[in-house]
């Protein structure tokens, strides 16, 4: 099934949902192996090393240094991987409120990592975008 491409429909139907828990970003050198006991939400290999996103308690348990304590908000609309302007509209609204975001697009949905202390505010802003008649 193809994802939605229409920007107005994406914004109207995004239905943001916040996940439980606090997520953090860790990095492993390019030669380090991820311990098999770790269950990351996301891994991404870069030339400088591998980024691992996982729950904070798991990083602490394994003694992994981490940054950016964040909450995860999923935009539950099935967005097309080549939709134009969706994340730009979302991140612009959060930026206007001074809220940083790390966005990840997966096959079905877009996911936003927002600073943990501002997560409820971010969720409210996103809900306002998808409410008809909101600003």
Number of strands: 7
- Percent helix range: 25-40%
Mean pLDDT comes to 91
**General shape:** globular
Largest sheet: 7 strands, antiparallel
Following the backbone from N to C, one meets helices and strands in this order, namely HEEEEHEHEEH
Rg, please?
Answer: 16 Å
Distance from N terminus to C terminus (CA atoms, Å) equals 31 Å
Structural class: alpha+beta
Proportion of strand residues: 25-35%
Low-confidence stretches: none
Number of helices: 4
Folded structure, characterized:
By secondary structure, the chain is of the alpha+beta class. 27% of the residues lie in helices and 30% in strands. It is built from 4 helices and 7 strands; from the N terminus they run αββββαβαββα. The longest helix has 12 residues, at 119-130. The model has no long low-confidence stretch (mean pLDDT 91).
Keywords:
135 residues, alpha+beta, 7-stranded antiparallel β-sheet, 7 strands
How is this structure best summarized?
Helix content is 27%, strand content 30%. It is an alpha+beta fold and 135 residues long. A hairpin with a 2-residue loop joins strand 3 and strand 4 (49-55).
Break the fold down into its secondary structure elements and pairings.
Layout: H1 7-13, E1 16-18, E2 23-28, E3 42-46, E4 49-55, H2 56-61, E5 67-75, H3 86-96, E6 102-105, E7 110-115, H4 119-130
Antiparallel strand pairs: 1-5, 2-4, 2-5, 3-4, 5-7, 6-7
């Amino acid at each position: 099934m193809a994802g939605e491409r229409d920007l107005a429909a994406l914004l109207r139907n995004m239905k943001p949902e916040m996940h439980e828990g606090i997520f953090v970003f860790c990095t492993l050198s390019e030669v380090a192996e991820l311990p098999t006991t770790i269950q990351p939400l996301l891994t991404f290999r870069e030339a400088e090393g591998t980024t691992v996103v996982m729950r904070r308690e798991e990083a602490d348990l394994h003694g992994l240094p981490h940054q950016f304590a964040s909450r995860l908000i999923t935009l539950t609309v099935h967005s097309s991987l080549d939709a134009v302007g969706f994340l730009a509209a979302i991140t612009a609204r959060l930026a206007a409120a001074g809220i940083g975001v790390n966005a990840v697009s997966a096959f079905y949905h877009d996911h936003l990592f927002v600073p943990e202390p501002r997560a409820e505010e971010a969720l409210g802003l996103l809900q306002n975008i998808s409410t008809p008649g909101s600003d």
